[in-house]
Design brief:
mainly alpha; 3 helices; elongated
């Protein structure tokens, strides 16, 4: 019974990820061509693109 519950939860999470993620992307008009502020307003002091490991560290520590 536990295996059925686990498998059904995984299937539901995968479906929700695919369906809800694409719905959010359409609603927010996500586009990879948009430039981020650290690239547009780059000044070498305040607006500097972060390295990926630093960005993930800040994201997961908060």
């Amino acid at each position: 019974m536990l295996a059925v519950l686990l498998v059904s939860a995984i299937v539901l999470f995968v479906l929700a990820y695919r369906i809800y993620g694409s719905w959010i992307a359409r609603k927010l008009n996500l586009n990879d061509d948009y430039a981020v502020p650290s690239e547009v307003m780059y000044d070498g002091t305040d607006y500097v693109p972060a390295k990926t490991p630093v960005l993930f560290g800040h994201h997961f520590s908060s």
